[in-house]
Amino acid sequence: MSDTSKVSKAEAEADAQTTVAPADDPTAAPVTVVDPRLLVREEGFKGYWTEFTRKVKGGELGSLPVVVGLIVIWTIFQLKNDLFLSAENLSSISYFMSATGMLAIGLVFVLLLGEIDLSVGSVSGLASTLFAVFAINHGVNPWLALILTIITGIGIGALHGWFFAKIGVPAFVVTLAGFLGWNGLMLWLLGSSGTINIPSDSGPVHILGQSSYFMDQAIIGAYLLAGLGVVLSAIGNFGEQRRRKAAGVPFRPTSEILLRVGLLAVASFVAAAVLNNSDGVSNALVIFLAALVITDFILRRTTFGRQVFAVGGGVEAARRAGINVPMVRITVFSIAGGFAAIGGMFFAGQTSSATLNAGGGNTLMLAIAAAVIGGTSLFGGRGSVWSALLGMLVIQSITTGLNLLNMNTSIQYMITGGVLLGAVVIDSVSRRSQKASGRG
Length: 440
Description:
- This protein has helices at residues 9-16, 45-57, 64-80, 87-112, 120-137, 142-167, 171-190, 204-209, 218-247, 254-276, 283-301, 303-313, 315-320, 325-351, 363-373, 386-404, 409-436, and strands at residues 17-20, 31-34, 195-197, 353-355.
- The protein has 17 helices and 4 strands.
- The longest helix has 30 residues, at 218-247.
- The chain is mainly alpha-helical and 440 residues long.
């Protein structure tokens, strides 16, 4: 039963109440006992508040910690430097978080299995190099080179998944070998020069890296994007309500759907208005958001998505339920490899080149940190692709804010590391609280 489903009084009484006589006085009137573990919510705003407090007490924090953390971070940096929440700075944050964010999306799938992929940074660097070799050195059509690059990333991920799922090599070892091996292949392809410049007119790289934005008019593009998101949300919510009604199961009331869509509309159009005061919505951000919407649909609305959560929740239980566990694992690592390749193209677009530093440095650690800070559990079975967005907002906000304050890079690493540790601690405590409340 969904937490937010509309539950009739009769259903609530049937599901959550048990009538028993007091033990000390068998002749006394029966007393109704409500099982607190059942997901039964009153209708109205009081029901929302009751449900919220129950979830917090039971350890079901969701994205609450990262949202609160983001508000605190923004408040502190804004007090230190009033340029932090300026349109120009927010536009910069939204642009530069997209590349690592694409890697984080793929890592969310892997983390949902309770595994890790240490190769995504090297795969992203190799992808930018392969694109440059195909398109620049061998004159392949840039769009065909892009397709070949992404297919290569998917193939690399599938190879990692095959060794893990079929041979039984731990994912940590397989992807660590990939981290080293694919980085070596990238260095070999780049040769002694160590760099291949990519002209600004190279199709997809130009789209990802240019300063022009979605459509020709930034203002129109930003508001159209916001409007499209609101319309799709309304269609999805009302469609789900209609299907649940037809199936005779609890559903969200229309008032709740209107409230949700209204809040999304306010947030979307405010964000569009702020970004339009600078450069509008970047192509990189549009593609990143589109990837989030598509992958969120896959995880929440498809059989494959439910299988990923099932395998992450318990491999043996998933196997007994008839799920092809090896195939799910191979597919998940393929997805991670594909998104690593796409992220590599984002990096190439930002620098207009393929270099020795592509995908190196702290790229891998930041991608993992983004997924975990955003709310995806390291223990598997719980999380959302929106973790990539929330986590990257936190990380990029810290980086940009400290840059505005002229802080050393070492300070950025220490603060980001502390935030990551805090996210894992919260996740661990949350899981313990859920087990104690009978929901673990």
